[in-house]
Amino acid sequence: MKKYEPNFNDRLGAAAKAKQALVEKARANAPSNDPKFAEKLAARKAAAEERKARSAERRAARLAEKEAKLAEKARLIEEAAAREIAAIEERKAARDAKYAARKARQKR
Question: What are the two backbone dihedrals, phi and then psi, of residue 32, each rounded to the nearest 5 degrees?
Fold first, then answer.
């Protein structure tokens, strides 16, 4: 009795049939065939939109907090500058009073 040895064309045909069977099996199990697939997809999209909205809110809150900190820092710098200017004016007024007192003593 003669042994059957598949030739190259037989092996190619068998591989093509196996690949076609896998493709058919994948098509049968595709999620688009599932009746609840559209609902799941809509739920995922809604969740993604909610995440995006929360992320935008957090980003806006961080930006607002950063702006508030910058405004507070600017206010503190302005106050410090105003105090420094007031101190300089006080020293100048004291110096001018001292010079005026000296001139008044010299005129006597």
Answer: -70, -20
